[in-house]
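Below is how a single chain appears once it has passed through the pipeline. First comes the sequence as given, then the structure the pipeline wrote out for it. We keep one example in the README because the format questions we get most often are answered faster by looking than by reading.
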Amino acid sequence: MDDMRAEEWVVVRNCGFMHEAELIVAVLDAEGIDAFIPDAQMAGSTGLTGLTGGVRVLVRESDLELARERLQAEEEEELPEAGASPDEAG
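Resulting structure:
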């Protein structure tokens, strides 16, 4: 827990649903980037993430750019190429 206080943590993504935030944390963790969901307990207990402003995913400030790049790359991998048929996309 001391590492979490040693450096500023910043929002890398604000998600509408808890499962989205958990997926982002898993992707970042697989890339060696520490991430956490400070709103996990509140979002889990209320289920009203849309009304509470969403579920924040935080990373260390020094990892912010790398985290953004990794998430962008992950999103681009999931999108089919323009003009590709459904068979080619998947």
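The chain has a mean pLDDT of 81.

See the next section for the split statistics.
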